[in-house]
Amino acid sequence: MVSQITSGIKISVLTSFEGTYFKNYKIHFAFSYEVTIENQSKDSVQLNSRHWEIHDSLNDLEVVDGEGVIGKKPVLKPGEKHTYSSGCLLSSPFGAMRGYFNMVNFTSTRSFRVIIPTFKLSAPFALN
């Protein structure tokens, strides 16, 4: 698990290899990840959008921008957590993801960016 705190918001990510799949006559490596967003600040905040950079060892880069996370824009009061799960397909057994959440502080009405730390994706069978 990797974790990072930005502006009082702790992001933790846990990853798992889910298996291999054939899609369009090509093998893909499926990974899941669980993200926990914990508000360690003294203010209520809301997650409005996300930005992901998904890299694989073949140097492919996929950029994903979107509203909220899995269809939600969670509001977190001080001390609250929001956890969600998602996944991605890579062309190789190794990769990494990183990104950020765009959030708003309800007390100051200030928008701010919370860093999602880089986390590795690796299929266990490919490791020495």
UniProtKB/TrEMBL annotation:
GO terms for biological process: error-free translesion synthesis. This is ApaG domain-containing protein. It holds the Pfam family DUF525. Residues 3-128 form the ApaG domain.
